[in-house]
Every structure is written in C-alpha cells, then in structure tokens.
Amino acid sequence: MSIAALSVEPEDARRTRILEAAERAFARHGFHAASMQIVAAEARMSAGNLYRYFSSKEALVSGLAERDQAALAEDFGQLEAADDMLGAMAALLRKHLVAAPIGGCHLALEIWAEAGRNPAVAEVCRAIERVARTRLAAIVAAPAAAAGLTPDFAVRVMLTVTAGLFKRRATEPDFDGEAEIALALAVYRALFAGAIKPEPRATGGSPS
C-alpha cells in the first residue's frame, strides 16, 4: 500500500490493518517482546498515530478479541444448526487446525501465556471463554444429559482437548492435524457414550 493510499484510508480499514499488524508482531516476536513501536512499524505508521487508535497492547488484545467474536459466533452458529454435531465439530477443527494459517495458534499461545502475567489480558481471555462455555453448553446439553453428564462437565472435557490441540499445533513441527482431529473425535464420542465420567470428589477422612 502506497503512502498516498494510507493517507486516505478509512478509519475502519486502518483499525483492521493495525490489528492484523499486531497479530503478526505478537506471533513473530511474542506478546511480551513486541512493543507498540514494533506494532507501529509492522502497520507502517508512527507510534504516535498507533496510540490514537489503541492505547496499549492490552487494548490491541481487546481489539483482536472483538474482531474474532464474529468468527466465533459463526462457528457456534454452524454447530447449533447442524444435524450431526460431531460432524460439524470435525469440520470446525479441520478449519482451525489444518486449513487456517498456523500463526493463529502461535498468537493464541502467546496471549494465553501473557494472561498468566497480565490481569487485563487474563480478563479478555476469561470473557471469551465465558461466551464459548455458554454457547457450547447449550449445544451439548441434550447429548450430555443422555450420557448422564452435566453440560459443564462435557464442555470442560471438550475445551481441554481443543486447547491442547491448539498448543500442540503451535509447538510441534510434525503435528498431524487429521490424525489428532480423529483422536479428538474419538474422545468426544466416548464422552457422549457415557464412557468418560467425572471423578467423584473426596469426602474427607484419612486414607486407609
């Protein structure tokens, strides 16, 4: 994009370009190391101009989360409309773990790591997870009940498996998406067949 084109760029397009630049910078340098100056350079603008749109890296994370809410809603909409829930889940896993660029997994890993250090980023992550848990719990309520499970337990199992796959794709050079998706689906089938149950909570007392 030329300098002249940048000067007449619409506000929404400029925000989108900044968020895309932040995504690349965070994935390449790591969230902690990627300064606002690095993001500005990636977006081909001055740091001062960047601060007009986003006041901090935490604000950039919030912007990325807001941008991705529409995509998340579309994913859940497909699950809600599907006659074959597991088939729809397989398609979504394939979309994110095979077809999508690996940079999205790198970015997720960076943001999760930063959430352990940064309360503002942690709250953004919790807000996204609350939405995901609520939507997914409604989707799996009937099959979970048929298996004698609460929706909350089923969601916990599914999110644990899915988060693990994102982490492994980001860190394992020989990650085989199709094989791992098949394994995840086997876990989901076992879950809704009632073969995976929560461990009973200890009631106290000393071990024998």
TrEMBL record:
GO terms for molecular function: DNA-binding transcription factor activity; transcription cis-regulatory region binding. Residues 35-54 bind DNA. PROSITE patterns: HTH_TETR_2. InterPro entries: Homeodomain-like_sf (IPR009057), HTH-type_TetR-like_transc_reg (IPR050109), HTH_TetR (IPR001647), Tet_transcr_reg_TetR-rel_C_sf (IPR036271). Residues 12-72 form the HTH tetR-type domain. Keywords: DNA-binding. PANTHER family: HTH-TYPE TRANSCRIPTIONAL REGULATOR PKSA, HTH-TYPE TRANSCRIPTIONAL REGULATOR RUTR. This is TetR/AcrR family transcriptional regulator.
